[in-house]
Amino acid sequence: MNYDVIVVGGGIVGASIAFYLTKTKGINVLLCEKGKPPGDGATSISGGLIRVHHTNKANQYLSFRSLQIYRELMKNRKMDFGYNPIGFSLIVSPEYVKNLNNNVQYMNKLKLPTIIYSPQDYSLREKFINVENIGAISYEPLGGYGDPAKSSITFLNEALKQGLNLMEGTEAEKLLIKKDKVVGVKTNFANIYSKQVIIASNFWSKKLTKQLEFNIPLYTKRLGVVFAHTHNYNVLSHSYIDDTSDTYMRPLPDGRILIGIKSSDCNTNIDHLSKKIHYNEAEEALFRASKRFPVLSKAKLLGGRIGFDSYTPDQYPIIGQSEIEGLYLSIGFSGGGYKIAPAVGEFIAEEITGNKKTNELKYYGLERFKDYNNTYFQTSNMYKYM
Ligand SMILES: Cc1cc2nc3c(=O)[nH]c(=O)nc-3n(C[C@H](O)[C@H](O)[C@H](O)COP(=O)(O)OP(=O)(O)OC[C@H]3O[C@@H](n4cnc5c(N)ncnc54)[C@H](O)[C@@H]3O)c2cc1C
């Protein structure tokens, strides 16, 4: 079996890459997914928040371009991502107001509608909020949320129409290397050969890359969301990240509320990690959310979901050609891959097909970790948690 490109992993990142690669005529693309798309990785668990606000220009640009893509493809090709532009707020404490203003400046340059609220003005539009300890709020009317699992399937279905070869139940077990070049993958099904292998297999990629001589700084974090129900249906009018208490939340279409739990490192074998949520961590998440929206203290907890994502030391992904020819990396999305995945797919496809090299991608290369403490992403405009 011979292909031009093999994509390993059918979560949102692999699916978006496959969609954009197959848009180019004459490229023979295979995607192998060890499970059933969208797989049982982070994409199927994700909170799905969509926002442009970040603390560096490159990621703002990737999020902005992704937002445009979600909107354009929905409109022009009727692709369903479950995107719901209910708005997104980033809430910061007084010491970070200057940083927030700086970050919004670039969003303004991108011509993204954004409003900065004082706590007083914000309380006029958010009747359930407690504005204690808030310095400022940045509000994006086009932010909100999407459905990551649906988005991934939508990209894959369209990619199939464009000629993608999809192999389900097919695990890339080993990279095939010949004369210092990656020439394909050994799978449980067959050996498959290609000019280029793109690894988009999240935290599992550690297994696949351990045969390489260079180190990829990737670690796994346990993340999760809990669900709650309150009789006040309009408590949350849109999606929020509250940096003052390291929490995020949004309404669900069925009236429930989704709240993020605290993430934690996990170093055990990733194949044996438990996906069970515990009542005390759900309670703790609800407690933090109810500090901002006090009526939530009476909400009923209705379970939750646990998932895992791969993180890098500066909490931004690794995207780019690796040190070995024939191997491209798109991993380490550090709890924020959904909102940037469309642009990542588009830019990678453009780079690999030789059409264009997007300037912003240069910041995401693996080589940046040669100086761990000084990567592009550690800006002076960061916040306490995000
Ligand atoms: C609880 C939670 C909440 C989140 N909330 C948000 C949010 O609000 N907004 C946001 O932007 N992001 C959020 N994220 C992060 C985002 O969901 C992830 O960054 C993103 O889904 C990662 O996508 P992926 O395709 O890289 O990985 P995955 O979705 O994990 O996909 C990797 C796929 O590769 C397959 N695979 C692995 N190894 C192999 C192999 N050897 N061969 C073949 N297939 C293989 C797996 O089966 C899997 O399907 C959240 C994540 C979690 C867990």
Automatic annotation (TrEMBL):
Signal peptide: none annotated. SUPFAM superfamilies: FAD/NAD(P)-binding domain (SSF51905). The keyword ATP-binding does not apply. GO terms for cellular component: cytoplasm. InterPro entries: FAD-dep_OxRdtase, FAD/NAD-bd_sf. Keywords: Oxidoreductase. GO terms for molecular function: oxidoreductase activity. Residues 4-350 form the FAD dependent oxidoreductase domain. This is FAD dependent oxidoreductase domain-containing protein. It comes from Virgibacillus pantothenticus.
